[in-house]
């Protein structure tokens, strides 16, 4: 199918790497959600640089990020390594969450207040934030735009843990509601969608900065007392 400006065929192979941002400076353990002012930590910047090095030899022609600072700062070294301007797409933003700006954990923070319990009644939607289906729609559209911008090449899209995991779950035909502790979407990881033409034909996952990620933040890690609060993603 052609839009009049490019020569598109079903044989076009395009890879869209969806990257989770690096570690954020958040000493108070706040669920920062969409709040402004949360930047990468020094370790987070090292993670971003590591992934930029990892992708330096790849055929990346488009780099785009969520408008939040942590995503922009993660994407900057990747765009720079390829001599590209960094684009911004609002559809890549973190999921909305009613507990934004609060600490959140079992036995402390927002869950200690009975008035907040009503927001936990429906984990399938979920009742505490942006519906999973809405996340799928906006993320699929954002990925499609990135695919079109990089058609026949590769794109890097920097977003946040929950939207990335939800869109991957949708593509891989898993249920959208899930145990957050089992998401395979570590800091600075790459979830790579390969398109043939306009159809996704495979999904890959890699962790170029795995050795920099604190052990308790790796996928499937057991909670560590004092370190298991939800920090936002």
TrEMBL record:
Gene3D superfamilies recorded: Phosphoglycerate mutase-like (3.40.50.1240)
Name this polypeptide is given: Histidine phosphatase family protein
E.C. no: 3.1.3.-
Highest taxon above the source species: Bacteria
Enzyme class: hydrolase
GO molecular function per UniProt: phosphatase activity
Organism: Streptomyces coeruleorubidus
Any Gene Ontology CC annotation: cytoplasm
SMART domains: PGAM
UniProt keyword terms in alphabetical order: Hydrolase
PANTHER family: BROAD-SPECIFICITY PHOSPHATASE YOR283W-RELATED, PHOSPHOGLYCERATE MUTASE
């Amino acid at each position: 199918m052609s839009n009049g400006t490019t020569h598109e065929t079903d044989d076009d192979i395009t890879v869209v790497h969806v990257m989770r941002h690096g570690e954020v400076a958040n000493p108070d353990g706040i669920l920062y959600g969409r709040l402004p002012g949360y930047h990468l930590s020094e370790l987070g910047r090292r993670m971003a640089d590591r992934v930029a090095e990892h992708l330096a030899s790849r055929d990346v022609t488009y780099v785009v990020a969520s408008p939040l600072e942590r995503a922009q700062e993660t994407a900057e070294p990747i765009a720079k390594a390829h001599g590209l301007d960094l684009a911004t797409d609002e559809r890549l933003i973190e999921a909305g969450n009613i507990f934004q700006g609060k600490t959140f954990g079992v036995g402390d923070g927002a869950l200690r207040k009975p008035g907040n319990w009503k927001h936990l009644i429906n984990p399938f939607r979920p009742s505490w934030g942006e519906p999973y289906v809405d996340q799928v729609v906006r993320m699929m559209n954002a990925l499609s735009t990135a695919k079109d911008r990089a058609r026949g090449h590769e794109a890097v899209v920097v977003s946040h843990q929950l939207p990335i995991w939800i869109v991957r779950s949708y593509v891989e035909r898993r249920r959208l509601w899930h145990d957050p502790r089992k998401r395979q979407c570590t800091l600075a990881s790459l979830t790579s969608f390969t398109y043939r033409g306009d159809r996704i034909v495979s999904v890959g996952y890699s962790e170029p900065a795995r050795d920099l990620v604190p052990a308790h933040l790796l996928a499937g890690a057991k909670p560590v007392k004092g370190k298991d609060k939800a920090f936002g993603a």
